[in-house]
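To illustrate the input format used throughout this study, we show a single complete record. The first block contains the structure-token representation of the backbone; no residue identities are included at this stage. The design step must infer an amino acid for every position from geometry alone.
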């Protein structure tokens, strides 16, 4: 993908994370926010001075490769993007760890793997975790997730955390905590009125340094995502 094409992609333009240190992608219940990640990957990798440690807890890496390919970008591992997949398998390696110590041990191993990559990067460093809320599914306690996040955001890196808010109280606690410590939140929500042929949902951009929040409608198609101002919906009914 040429850089000019990137600039002409409206969603990539909206995902302005310049000078932001903690970026949150928040998926509200019944919405699907995973389309944000590939656009951010393409945006960051089109900056020649950037490198990424990418942790996939929600979707497999191949999913993101396919999405980036649809955007015209070939995602190549170990070429400025270094990935951690299948982290859930660490549970089997820690099966003899006492239950009361398991949560802390998983976090230590997670941090160890992330740092092993970050320490090899020497350009502008980004850490992207596609959905950090899934650490709860591995049995990690909320307090240990919060401690992990605090350690990560105090490093000299840009952190991008995906999170989802479901009917589970634990999910909500983690999601709300991440929003409070963020510099910017890209929040994806379903339509209050239900399904629509013209609109898939809402995208809110909440910037801590700007009292005026941005709101867009979005429409997901097989090969792309259309983003538009409320009131422009009629264009997509054709």
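Output of the design step:
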């Amino acid at each position: 993908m040429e850089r000019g094409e990137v600039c002409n992609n409206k969603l990539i333009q909206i995902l302005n994370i310049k000078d932001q240190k903690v970026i949150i992608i928040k998926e509200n219940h019944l919405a699907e926010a995973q389309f944000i990640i590939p656009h951010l990957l393409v945006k960051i990798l089109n900056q020649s001075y950037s490198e990424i440690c990418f942790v996939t807890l929600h979707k497999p890496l191949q999913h993101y490769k396919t999405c980036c390919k649809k955007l015209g970008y070939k995602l190549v591992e170990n070429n400025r993007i270094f990935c951690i997949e299948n982290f859930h398998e660490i549970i089997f390696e820690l099966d003899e760890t006492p239950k009361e110590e398991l949560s802390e041990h998983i976090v230590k191993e997670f941090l160890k793997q992330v740092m092993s990559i970050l320490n090899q990067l020497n350009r502008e460093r980004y850490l992207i975790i596609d959905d950090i809320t899934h650490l709860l599914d591995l049995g990690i306690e909320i307090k240990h997730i919060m401690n992990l996040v605090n350690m990560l955001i105090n490093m000299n890196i840009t952190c991008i955390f995906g999170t989802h808010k479901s009917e589970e109280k634990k999910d909500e606690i983690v999601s709300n905590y991440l929003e409070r410590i963020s510099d910017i939140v890209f929040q994806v929500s379903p339509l209050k009125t239900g399904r629509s042929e013209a609109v898939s949902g809402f995208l809110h951009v909440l910037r801590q340094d700007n009292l005026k929040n941005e709101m867009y409608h979005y429409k997901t198609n097989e090969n792309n995502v259309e983003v538009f101002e409320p009131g422009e919906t009629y264009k997509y009914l054709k």
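Structural context for interpreting the output: The first helix runs from residue 3 to 8. The mean pLDDT is 89.
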